[in-house]
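Two quick folds needed for the group meeting slides. Do the first one here.
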Amino acid sequence: MKTFLCVVRRVLAVLLALIFALLGAACLIAIPLSNNYSAMVSMAIAMPTTAKSGGSNPQYFTSDYSSAAAVQEASAQLCREIEQEGMVLLRNNGDALPLAKGASVTLLGESAADLVYGGAGAGSVDTSTAPNLRRAMEAAGFTVNPVLWDFYTTGAGASYKKEVPSVTGQGRFAANEAPQSAYTQAEFDSMAQYNDAAIVVIGRSGSESVDLPTEYLSFTQEERNLIQMATERFDKVILLLNVTNPINMTELSRYDIDAVLWVGALGQEGAYAIGEALNGTVNPSGHLVDTWAADAASAPAAANLGDYTITNSDVFAGNKYIVYAEGVYVGYRYYETRYEDAVLAQGNAGDFDYDAQVVYPFGYGLSYTDFSWSDYKMTETADGFALNVTVTNTGKAAGKEVVQAYLQNPYTEYDRANRIEKPAVELVGFAKTDTLQPGESQTVQIDVDKSAMKVFDAYGAGTYILEAGDYYLTAAANAHEATKNILAAKGAAVDGNAAMTALYNQAQTDTKTFATAETGATATAQMADADITTYDADFTYLSRSDWTGTWPSTYQNGSWEAPETVLTALEITRPVDESAEMPTFDEAGNLKLCDLIGADYDDARWETLLSQMSKKDTYNLIRHAGYGTMAVESIGAPGTVHKDGPAGISSTLAGGNLHCMAYEPAVVLASTYNVELASRRGKLVGEDSLSSGVQVWYAPAMNIHRAANSGRNFEYYAEDPLLSGVFGAAETAAFQSKGGIVTIKHFAFNDQETNRIGGAMFVNEQAARQLYLKPFEMSVVDGGAVGIMSGMNRIGCRWIGGHEGIMTNILRGEWGYKGFVITDQTSFNSFNYCDIREGLAAGNDLWLNTAYDMWALNDSELTATVMQNARTAAHRYLYAVANSNAMNGVDVDTTVKNIIPVWQYGYVVLVVFVAVMWFFGFKAVRALWASKRYLAKKAERKAKRAAKKAAKAQKAQ
């Protein structure tokens, strides 16, 4: 028995020893880790790290509403309106919609009970209070089949749910529709009672860090079986597409589906609009912002979209690449141009069948009513052209119509010789009517600036030119109608409307007007190093001069042994200005940041203010700017709080316990073609900025939909740069009117998620400027943006934040940008290629970094060059802060300071606890391990040692 008890005690001793060892190891890891990322921890648990006190508490920016409840009510109403005007009616055979009010319906599909409200990652939103579809339908007066609802929520169907990868790309996309075998006779029998219509819901979401697999944008076999079952059991079948990327619709041609309604992702309140549209309270007026191709692989960009490797590169985060071989032919710019060339039998267009290639063109959208257009007129103005058209509601329901204006530039011999490409049509403006009652008319005007006609001549003049020739301007309901209108005006045998087209002739080529930016800077080529032809002289971009002969293939088959020039260019460079002098720091003075509210960026007092800062504060302000910045006590600059995401200020990704409105993603907002809604959203997100204390908004997102399966297309507006720029500029201006600071992102060429970390994106400068940079330019020039977020990717071989041609010469020189540029996430060693010294020299200003050991340079590394660049960066950031709502509560008598958050005081308690735990734990382990016999032997050995010691002492005497 004694032996057994001894064994038990020793087993317990071993277990306790393991527990204490694990707890100790965890503490040894957690304590320094949490200390290093203390800013992120503080943000996640909503504990402030800065404070301000004293002064008269001035409020430079205030709410337009009397209460938080009033803001919430206005936000909820707007969220519903965005969905009402953003949903797109794609099919309505036999006027299947709207349904009768009070109809009894059956909701079918896993997604009926698992709606897509937004995307994952930075664009994620909290939709815990959002209505489900049954609630939304019942609110609209419908009776919903309870048996099927229970099947999807609590029954056998509840085990089938969509899967979406994590923010880091772990996991998979999967639709996981319930198979027909999961249904019982009870579910089938219930359908007869709720048979006014079957409403089949198909859902797809997107995510940061990973692109959508091609098969995810097709209907699964289980979904096709579900639709087949619905068509067999119901006389009327309505398909709701709760998807944010175009999905392959050709597979549905075999099924008798009466109506198709694209609803995108719904945000917090948008689900209510579905019921309102289905019962006719709302007439859908949205139009597509993407081309819905029969096969996404038919787009030329699809050939270069994926994971491609530079096999001989050992550069850190520098062995992945993409070549934008399609040039300017993205989305409708490809399909419409090749269609025109096929009709006119030119450009080696081949056997191109538009109707087989495109299911729904860009700009497409139906209504419950009909409209006629008349009296189209183009008038030259001082700056360009005014297009007028009268729209009349000729149907039986009230509704809104969208008028789109498209331009065709002449495609000349000079273009062919100098590798300039000209799409058949390009969107240059749009307008949405008011709600028109049956029989009511409205004349809308679209103003087109003459600059819309310029092109960037990268290989010839090296600047913007306006070529001589015939320019066509047409008003149309979608891009394909526009192309046919222009073809009809040229005399081609197509069903276009030549009366909706006007001709302008440019007598002479103008190489000067647009070669000088409004800032006075000369617009010159800055991106030769991003053009693949710089490294491969034999490469040819897709050209309408020879469609078949220049059709893209995957560059180097996705496995590129790059030339030495590429390998060298991939390396980090850290320019040194030998003439740089160390700036003055710690200069005595009483100037405060609030003294410079409203001051010009070039005001001489900025230099005085910046000289009062310490060298340490200057550098730490710009290197440690992840989700917020510190207070600078010497100049009275308050700390700031930054948050994602593009659908509204969100705490779902990085914590913070915020309760702001979760709007529909940008793709739905842009589908409204209603810029007023974008302005209202920007202003209401600004209201959330005021109430939540979040000054810097990591949004709007300005990349375009280069391909149908980009993982973050949901948070980008459109495939078209003008549409993206108009909405981005509107949201930007409105948000900043409430004192918030945008960071339009991801500047630039972050158009796929695969290998966005360090991936080298090669693109020619015409495409770069006219497509990918254009939305950013509009948000800066027209929207007044004072914050930009640079991408994780490279442009050419250089990390985008380290590319001086773009970050300084184009952004600041040509566009006149006065604000700051912050990186995307750079808190971990995996982002070491986003070098702070290279970036500062090029024009990147802040690092979105929450780790104290990242980008920490020693004093010898903080050279005169680095500190001059750091001071410039601090100037740009503080200029934005001075004119923001971060200054609310700050005047010359206000004290600002950095504080230790409460949770960090727990370190002391934790250290004491661990010490006490180890001390008494060690005692407990020893006591349990020991036995009487062991202790007796131990005492005997101790006595022998003592006797031996005494004997030696006696002998020594």
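Then this one, please, same format:
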Amino acid sequence: MLDTPGPGQLFSAPYAPDDSELAARLLAMPPLSAEQNARIDRTATRLIEAVRAEDGGFGGVEDMLREFALSTKEGLALMVMAEALLRVPDAATADRFIEDKLGQGDFAHHRTKSSALLVNASAWALGLSARVIQPGETPLGTVGLIAKRIGLPAVRTATRQAMRLMGNHFVLGENIDAAIARAADDDGPTHHHRYSFDMLGEGARTAADAARYFESYAAAIEAIGRTADNRAHPDRPGISVKLSALHPRYEALSRTRVMAELVPLTLDLARRAMAHNMNFTIDAEEADRLELSLDVIGAVFADPSLTGWEGFGLAVQAYQKRAEAVIDHVHALAERHDRRMMLRLVKGAYWDTEVKRAQERGLDGYPVFTRKAMTDLNYIACARKLLGLRPRIFPQFATHNALSVATISELAGDDTSFEFQRLHGMGDALYAQLHADKPDVACRIYAPVGSHRDLLAYLVRRLLENGANSSFVAQAADDSIPVAALLQRPEQIIAAPDQARNARLPLPHELYLPRINSKGVEFGARAALDALLTSVDDAVRPSNSVKEASENDAAIAVALARTGFAFWSRTTADTRAIALERAANLLEHRMPRFIALLQTEGGKTIDDAVSEVREAIDFCRYYAIEGRRLFGDGLPLPGPTGESNTLRLRGRGVMVAISPWNFPLAIFLGQIAACLMAGNAVVAKPAEQTPRIAAEAVALLHEAGIPDSALHLVQGDGRIGAALVAHDNIAGVVFTGSTNVARSINRTLAAKDGPIVPLIAETGGINVMIVDATALPEQVADDVVTSAFRSAGQRCSALRLLFVQDDVADRMIEIIAGAAAELKVGDPRDPATQVGPVIDAKAKERLDAHIARMKATARVHFAGEAPASGHFVAPHIFELENAEQLTEEVFGPILHVVRYKAADFEHVLQSIATSGYGLTLGIHSRIDDTVDTTIERLAVGNVYVNRNMIGAVVGVQPFGGHGLSGTGPKAGGPHYLPRLATEQTVTINTAAAGGNVGLMTEE
């Protein structure tokens, strides 16, 4: 039986510590002597000059960056083409894609600056293509049609060849045997290379993907071991293994499952590597997976069967603030088991992803440094630590930074018990010069192995990583930058602790200033997750029954609210805003209690519950800020002298807010907060399925300073809602729910003889996603599964109908279905659950009936299994013959798929437009013209491109649709509050008292 790390052996370090505190410690490192710095300068200068002197030959990343900088349109177009082109199977889409990208840059007039064969060949092919496809022309156009008919196949061939040429250079081989053979050819008696082979590919989304990657790793280990010579460690070939490729749910919330399933697989591979005495390196993952990775590594490394083997290792990212803590943890692990470990120190390749995730999560800070100089400084600090931990740790320094190489060489002195590492296709000239200077210092080549489809996504990441203006690789390739500038030490650039953070990059909580971003929880931080789960478990769940109101109670609530309106409407905007901000703070403080309510009454998973509480907080803060702006002193308007004109907003009266059960806190509070901020009194009627959440929320608003007279809660079913809508003394209705109920409300309001009052309705829709052949299958799978099945499909914005281009449909549907099969359906209080119950027995009955009909009339791609007891409906995927078969919204975890041919894209747009719905739309395409055309043609409220289509953020993606999907204006947007108010223009004759003194005193 495998041992898992005990409590005292688990990794623990602050997830996103303060930059200035870390900088103070790093800047306090003992400085090097003047003699040492002089030697570093001389070494680094030789290395930089070697890079710049290399011109000719085949070329490398440095040459590509010199030729097509990412700051140019050509560079960006090249990056997008490299990422997507070779996976496009059909000619028509490839032609549109090439035309789209080549039209964005001036490839036709591009003069090559390099004599490298790779760059010249690529530039020539792209230039040839650009001359045939001119900007503004399309394969469907009439201008140049004959030329295109003749020229497009040649264009396609030339562009694909340019992409393959680049890919072949940066990837060692399309399979492990080819890579080993090429590595052997590159080796020689005068310069022996060490290799670590990396099997390319995205993380596994399906069990089949994970099994395929496992077999790929196992076969590679056997092939590498079979052809390896008899050299001793560390001079042995190696393989790099990505844990996320071996498990389809490699995430912190699935830790129990991951440890049970992934540890044995990883141990199996480690034993195979040990049998050949190979190096075996666990690759670095994103920051939120770090603790989980170290748990897996700890469990595998502790197995007694690996005793005596010195080839086990892992990668550590210096841009992560926890890098030094990881090194200490790994060293303690090696000490505990009395074994040597290898540790590859890298700087990190997913900085932009880490930053975005921290912002989306609403964390206190970033888990990575936000200035490159801080990463460089931390890299050297980690290098010092690693050199000092020899021989227990064998350091491996992966870098293409000449200054870092020179510094480490100086720190290491004459002890060569370490190695440098470089990427295949990069750093050739730099390390050739280092070998000439120090032939005893080893360098290992990190060699990607994979198909053209996989390799170009890898290439793009390398270009992004090394092509940014701040990248040393990009600067070293730029002759206009003085060498002296490249020798500036990171500690000189940072200078002081308060300069450690990028001041232009706001902290996550400052992202939406003046609104404070709501605080979230990083589930990958064990301490934060455990604290949250404990607080939720300890939260008191109200058990008292909720009294339903009668129609008479509803009438009394309206009457009392009319009285309360007289007072509340006269309070200042600032007073109202302060109350909402106080409510937001109370919500944030009581998040665990509301999570507990959302789980028990609303069936929310932990992820959904946290997101909903945060959305409710954001609504309160956003409307408070908007209210101060709109309901303050009024808007001054121009006019003649001696006259003032002001446009003011004021409350309408009593607003009825009717909210749904699927967002029983966020939508409920959002409606109420907006109405209150606009100066209205509110009678709130929540969904009958979630009364306790509503009661708790209203009590919190009262505690925050909203008078009882201004906010009234009326519990009950649809009859109570109808009675409120029909009351003569209401000033408007805010409603979220079904289209049929919205129609009924509209008819009731229209039939009344009193004032014409507004209805703001947000209803559902048959939400669509369009996927063409340029889309990345793994990204599509992630976004489709999230959009269709998160929240058990019970979101207004959830994906209902997926259009997939026929040429790629089989692979797309396969990976989506495989990913859906990995979702856990069950108790939402279990953190590992991804799909909780539907809201009640009626909902389950309707969905089960629809599933039965689909099984009889549609093609079943996936039918999940749900627990027998409870209101559970498992994810299902059905393929329809055409979109017209889906005539209404199906509110649950059921996805419908329709294939389309590229030539029929216009029909796809037409079928979406004629449905009458217009709430959310997803588009997955790398062709900008396809995206622009789709957005222009379809009047849909929220359009999401190359991402999922749920989770609209307040003030960022204001939410609401058109047609059958709602009236507008959008909730959480700048036009929402004015719709809840009346306008008043005040004109004052300021000269009435005897003349315009101000005018007469002007010169």
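Slide caption for protein two: The radius of gyration is 31 Å.
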